[in-house]
Inverse folding.
């Protein structure tokens, strides 16, 4: 005998279905609002995220300096923080000026190469006939290289402004660090919960610092090797290519591809020899493959446990929202999300998806980092 639902059961199901629909709609609206704010406030948020990373990199060093003694005297915490801010400001401004100068050098050289680029690229298709070669030449000539170069120059100029803002944020973070534990305790209202949150933050800082340390070593080695390769073949912009390779290798996956493409493009336009360019491509590709696909994973080990597909998704999302700076920040942001989701029961399924083997950080790692 079939059971016929009575009107009372139907009326009881409707509110629950309506609540689920309303919840889904609110989640979609909240995501849209957050995405809108991320895009509109991108300059400030990128600078703030960069400042937090710089602060996390140097906070442990400041604690070490503050524990040092000069004879019977101990270095005051405020003096160590002030010295750190001055050193960070000097290092960031110096690094920014070097990067901007080398980017401008690359842009000027590429602008000079732009006149020769159509003929050089069209020559690669000479085997297909004069019609194909002429079509390729016309297509390449129609590309407005100067517009792209002007956009890149504008981005390099905004880098200086962002550096100044990062320095200001770092200064305020160092000024606030003395009262951080007190604020955390008052915010949570529970000493046990405050210690747990503090350990989660420490785990994030430790993992991001380790990632940046390994990435800096690998990128520096790759940049030096690329510079040596460019000098060995007599390329005019060997130094800019080495520095650009160092910077671009902080972008996961596609950074090394772009860096190799820049080396090959500069080599072909300057040398005009396809076989020599092919040799440079093989050597540059081998350098990137060995450093990025063999040595890098060996040094990283199981410290990050990030899913490769998750890294690609993070790279695509933050690249779409924040552009090139978002690509640089995509992995540190993903590390933060992985650690947070690992220790929040409701979000742990997301941590399983973000982790490499489906084994996110366990609670015991907070006790024994």
């Amino acid at each position: 005998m079939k059971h016929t639902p009575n009107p009372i059961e139907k009326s009881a199901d409707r509110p629950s279905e309506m609540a689920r629909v309303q919840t889904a709609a609110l989640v979609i609206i909240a995501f849209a609002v957050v995405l809108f704010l991320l895009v509109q406030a991108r300059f400030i948020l990128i600078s703030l995220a960069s400042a937090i990373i710089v602060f996390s990199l140097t906070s442990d060093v400041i604690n070490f300096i503050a524990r040092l003694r000069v004879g019977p005297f101990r270095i005051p915490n405020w003096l160590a923080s002030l010295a750190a801010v001055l050193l960070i400001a000097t290092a960031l401004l110096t690094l920014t000026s070097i990067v901007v100068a080398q980017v401008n050098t690359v842009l000027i050289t590429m602008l000079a190469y732009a006149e020769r680029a159509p003929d050089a690229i069209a020559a690669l298709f000479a085997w297909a006939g004069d019609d194909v070669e002429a079509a390729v030449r016309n297509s390449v000539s129609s590309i407005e290289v100067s517009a792209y170069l002007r956009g890149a120059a504008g981005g390099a100029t905004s880098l200086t402004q962002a550096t100044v803002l990062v320095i200001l944020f770092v200064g305020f973070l160092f000024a606030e660090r003395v009262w951080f534990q007190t604020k955390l305790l008052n915010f949570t209202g529970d000493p046990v919960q405050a210690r747990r949150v503090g350990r989660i933050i420490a785990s994030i800082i430790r993992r991001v610092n380790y990632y940046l340390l390994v990435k800096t070593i690998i990128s520096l080695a790759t940049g030096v090797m690329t510079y040596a390769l460019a000098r060995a073949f007599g390329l005019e912009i060997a130094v800019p290519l080495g520095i650009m390779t160092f910077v671009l290798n902080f972008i996961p996956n596609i950074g090394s591809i772009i860096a190799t493409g820049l080396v090959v493009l500069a080599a072909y336009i300057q040398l005009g020899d396809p076989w020599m360019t092919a040799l440079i491509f093989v050597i540059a590709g081998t350098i990137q493959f060995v450093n990025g696909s063999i040595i890098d994973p060996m040094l990283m080990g199981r410290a990050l446990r990030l899913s490769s597909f998750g890294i690609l998704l993070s790279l695509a999302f933050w690249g779409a929202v924040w552009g090139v700076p978002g690509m640089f920040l995509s992995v540190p942001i993903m590390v933060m999300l992985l650690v947070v989701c690992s220790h929040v029961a409701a979000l742990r399924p997301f941590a399983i998806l973000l982790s490499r083997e489906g084994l996110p950080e366990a609670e015991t790692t907070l006790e024994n980092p």
Q: What stands out?
A: The first strand starts at residue 69 and ends at 70. Residues 102 and 240 are 5 Å apart (CA to CA).
